[in-house]
Design a protein that fits this description.
GO terms for molecular function: ATP binding; ATP hydrolysis activity; transmembrane transporter activity. Belongs to the ABC transporter superfamily. It is a single chain. By secondary structure, this protein is α/β, with parallel strands linked by helices. The chain is built from seven helices and ten strands. It has a six-stranded mixed sheet, with helices on both faces. The structure holds adenosine-5'-diphosphate (ADP) (2 copies).
């Protein structure tokens, strides 16, 4: 089943002499449950692409469909709900709220939705993410690996159909990096959740089902990994 369709996506920043074509006519489709690695040089448009899929940044041209829904053909309110429920974003530097503890950070998207926290899901996530006993800790009381596990918890709490990770291991050593990837793969396989990961790490890219390479705002390679 197709979960994501990116159609002729183009993004231009700035004007006149400062104009940058961050993305230039990118099109591809992703099926539910696929794990796609997005690779390419710095500045090639990878983050821009992920943000547009995540409903964070409006395209200049082209369309993004998630679950058949035209992401940017929604009201602001619908778009905000889309960002909290249908996609889960994970960043290199975690983007946790410093004054909120582990549980508060993980449940933030649910509370912002005005919904009740599913305690069973929270407790399952804390266990899977190996954060038991850390519930009341603030981000600055946690190691980098633990902080990234909290940000994974926040991304997964609402069981989104697509998880979007922008260099999730870019700030971690190789042991912690592999741990994070294993957690993302677990949720990908167990819940048939679609996973898009931007990475510079070849070892991580080779664990994906498919690699899309971006160069200068265009797709330069799109191939399925055969094992
Ligand atoms: P990557 O993630 O592959 O490193 P980005 O998507 O971050 O690439 O950036 C692609 C291009 O768009 C770069 O030239 C970058 O400088 C430019 N760019 C990204 N975000 C902005 C912005 N908010 N304003 C202006 N230019 C931007
Ligand atoms: P990791 O093996 O994940 O890199 P560290 O070696 O950084 O972990 O930390 C070892 C333990 O100390 C971890 O369980 C972590 O929770 C705890 N810890 C790390 N930094 C702090 C801190 N600033 N305050 C309190 N506890 C911390």
């Amino acid at each position: 089943m197709e979960i994501l369709r990116v159609d002729n996506l183009t993004k231009t920043y700035g004007e006149g002499n400062n104009k940058v074509n961050a993305l230039d006519g990118v099109s591809f489709r992703v099926n539910q449950g696929e794990f796609v690695a997005i690779i390419g040089p710095s500045g090639s448009g990878k983050s821009t692409l992920l943000h547009m899929i995540g409903g964070v940044d409006q395209p200049s041209q082209g369309k993004v469909f998630v679950n058949g829904k035209d992401v940017y053909n929604q009201t602001e309110e619908q778009l905000a709900i889309f960002r909290r429920r249908e996609v889960g974003l994970i960043y290199q530097f975690y983007n946790l709220i410093p004054v909120m503890n582990v549980v508060e950070n993980i449940t933030l998207p649910v509370l912002m939705d005005g919904r009740k926290v599913n305690e069973d899901r929270l407790s399952e996530l804390l266990t899977v993410l190996n954060l038991n006993g850390r519930e009341g800790h603030l981000p600055n009381q946690l190691s980098g690996g633990q902080q990234q596990r909290v940000s994974i918890g926040r991304a997964l709490m609402n069981a989104p159909s697509i998880v979007l990770a922008d260099e999730p291991t870019g700030n971690l050593d190789s042991k912690n990096s592999q741990e994070i990837i294993e957690l993302l793969k677990l949720s990908n396989k167990k819940y048939n959740q679609t996973l898009l990961v931007i990475t510079h790490d070849e070892n991580i890219a080779l664990q994906a089902d498919r690699i899309i390479a971006i160069g200068d705002g265009k797709i330069t390679r799109d191939e399925v990994i055969r094992r």
